[in-house]
Amino acid sequence: MSVVGLDFGTQNAVIAVARNKGVDVVTNEVSNRATPSMVSFSPRCRFLGEGAKTQEVSNMKNTVASLTRLAGRSLQDPDVAIEQEYVSAPLVDVNGQVGAEVNYLGKKEKFTAAQLCAMFLTRAKQTATAELRLPVNDMVISVPAWYSDQQRRAILDAAEIAGIKVLRLINETTATALGYGITKLELPGPEEKPRRTMFVDIGHSNYTASICEFRKGELKVVSTAYDRHFGGRNFDKAIMDHFRAEWQEKYKIDIYSNPKARVRAAAAVEKLKKGA
């Protein structure tokens, strides 16, 4: 039986399958290895992943991103106020949980972050099923090392809604360490001094470093440190702030005053950063 793993990130999600003594990353319906972690709604249907990404500018008020940053939180959580800057849909309280208010099928609807995560997980499940040509019901999902019990519970609830049995929630840096150690044949023996290695993960919205020790057949996470509010999007914002100041001086316009212009600029800055 093949085991399916999901790296459920803030910006993108990556699906992989363990098979034939290796790990294969699964491509989505447009042959990309990473799928945007987004959900979008319209008067006629909803869009998940790649489809939602195409709605990011034209239908921004009904498009929700940063799903994993919202899961397991309340509207009063200080971190949610930070996320509203990166989520174009209005965030609201839904029975004590943070959620989003959108126009869907011709009426106003409110969905909790767990429900939005569940919608995206159904797309991940469909992508894995199409690759394996078999029903996928079991999955290992990676989450940030700094996730609280409540946030982990929210991901488990989302998976249950999506019809997925979570075999294990694993910290992202632990998953990276396993991927590194599983192929190493020259690791120290049980009685020898362990090999100590640091893994640094700079994601879209957070930064994590873990110190791990390896022996043959053994992995121990010694310590983990993180910054929940530093990641790739902070580099994007620094570049945007630079262009904002330049355009204000040259053209007397402020792109931050126009939400659509800001989203377009953010998309262009991301392309610039990746192409540099």
Topology record:
Elements: E1 3-8, E2 12-19, E3 22-25, E4 35-36, E5 39-41, E6 46-48, H1 50-53, E7 63-64, H2 67-70, H3 78-83, E8 91-94, E9 97-104, E10 107-112, H4 113-132, E11 138-143, H5 149-161, E12 165-171, H6 172-181, E13 195-202, E14 207-215, E15 218-227, H7 232-251, H8 259-275
Parallel strand pairs: 1-11, 11-12
Antiparallel strand pairs: 1-2, 2-3, 2-4, 5-6, 5-7, 8-9, 9-10, 13-14, 14-15
Per the principal axes of the C-alpha atoms, what is the gross shape? globular
In N-to-C order, the SSE pattern is: EEEEEEHEHHEEEHEHEHEEEHH
- Our count of domains comes out at 4
Alpha-carbon Rg, integer: 20 Å
Helix content: 25-40%
Total helical segments: 8
What profile does the largest beta sheet have? 6 strands, mixed
pLDDT below 50 for ≥5 consecutive residues: which ranges? none
| Distance, first to last CA | 41 Å
- Looking at the structure, the CATH topology of the largest domain is Nucleotidyltransferase, domain 5
Give the CATH class of the largest domain.
Alpha Beta
Topology, number of strands: 15
Given helix and strand content, the structural type is alpha+beta
Assembly annotation: single chain
Going by CATH, the homologous superfamily of the largest domain would be ATPase, nucleotide binding domain
User: Mean pLDDT across all residues, rounded?
Assistant: 95
